[in-house]
Amino acid sequence: xxxxxxxxxxxxxxxxxxxxxxxxxxxxxxxxxxxxxxxxxxxxxxxxxxxxxxxxxxxxxxxxxxxxxxxxxxxxxxxxxxxxxxxxxxxxxxxxxxxxxxxxxxxxxxxxxxxxxxxxxxxxxxxxxxxxxxxxxxxxxxxxxxxxxxxxxxxxxxxxxxxxxxxxxxxxxxxxxxxxxxxxxxxxxxxxxxxxxxxxxxxxxxxxxxxxxx
Length: 214
Known about the structure:
Blueprint: E1 2-7, H1 12-22, E2 30-36, H2 42-49, E3 54-56, H3 65-78, E4 83-86, H4 95-100, E5 105-109, H5 121-128, E6 132-139, E7 149-156, H6 163-186, E8 190-193, E9 196-199
Parallel strand pairs: 1-2, 1-4, 2-3, 4-5
Antiparallel strand pairs: 5-6, 6-7, 8-9
Helix pairs in contact: 1-6, 5-6
């Protein structure tokens, strides 16, 4: 499965995907193109260093979101992308874009959704005094971090944590989980039943709890 990876930031999640691809842990998925809405995104250099095609579709160049997304879809189509991974992509997608890749757009978020959607989730967690935070990988719908949850990992919140320290520890789990979900998607092992995502065992593998399948 050819993946289009959408980025806006420095590219730590992209780096995790590239590392998984380089060691065979992403197969049968492959990163076909990396697209950024920001020409100064550090993730573009991460992609170039790995020899991946890149494209910039700057949202500020378009009069409205529909025109921006049309260009975004065109960039993905140029590289025959079959699914989309949001790796720190900071734009909300419209129903038109989501419909172009039904249940084939995956996002990662640094909280245990539905808690703390949107920006600065680790800071929200610290401010609320929660004892457990974590990461969620989910399918994308037309809301903000509201799509069906594929997988989650919990991270304890320490008494010494500030938002930055907590986020760094969440990212350790994020960088493990996102490539595993991308691989399962490419293997056809993710089945969405309403809001419940079932993770099927890989061919020839023994049945196990969903948490053990990634």
